[in-house]
Amino acid sequence: MSLAATVSTWSRSRVPSDEDVVRRVVAGEVALFEVLMRRNNQRLYRAVRAVLPTEEEVEEVMQQTYVAAYGALGDFAHASKFSTWLLRIGLNAAFSHRRLASLSPVPPPSEEEPVEFLLSPQPTPEDRASSRELSGLLEQVLDGLPVMYRTVLMLREVEELSTAEAAEVLGVSEDVVKTRLHRAKVLARESLYLRTEQRAASSFLFHAPRCDRVVAAVLARVADTAGTD
Q: CA 7 to CA 16: how far, in whole Å?
């Protein structure tokens, strides 16, 4: 049965969870890995984008993440959500890429690192022109945060992970997540953030053409890997 035919049957029955799909991929339904990518592209994009500044780097790291996840699906223990497991792989890859590209001379900053000064986040007249420009302003504010705070803000407030899920993704305690989130909001100037938080879901979107591009590139890499085995 083709992928499209398989997915079409889900609307007439129970839609399998990501974890169910993982089991089926491991059991041999390799084509269903595309379902996992399309379900998680937006979330993975936002997490990686919190660390890396350019779209080219983000897409490359997303592809690396999916290829690595595909190769490790057999080791996925189902102790947590697939999306949480995937985000952790993606963030590790993003931080490694950041270090290798010399975008940061040191590993991700510690909790004790001095807070960086932010440029004034006050919107210009153009920023008020449309909702899209307001979303763009929010992206600029988030980009101005130190990566430690930007990442936790992206996971908790934009992507709406729970404190426990964010802590698992970042490999820190829930208390650390709460502390970083509080500091991130202070740095982003609470009043500005409150004006734009309802539009957060429309920020850092991963549109269909880019989704298709990443999926196609990953499937090609996976096929090449399978061909060399």
A: 10
Domain 16-105+206-228: which CATH number of 1.10.1740.10, 1.10.530.10, 1.10.10.60, 1.10.357.10: 1.10.1740.10
Model's pTM, two decimal places? 0.71
149-199 pLDDT, tens digit per residue, is: 999 999 998 899 999 999 999 999 999 999 999 999 888 866 464 555 555
Give the number of C-alpha atoms closer than 13 A to the C-alpha of residue 52, restricted to the C-beta side. 28
Instruction: Show Cβ contacts of residue 222 under 8 Å, excluding neighbours closer than 6 positions.
Output: 30, 33, 67, 70
Instruction: HSE, CB side, 13 Å, CA atoms: give it for residue 89.
Output: 24
Q: Residue 121 gets which letter from DSSP? A: -
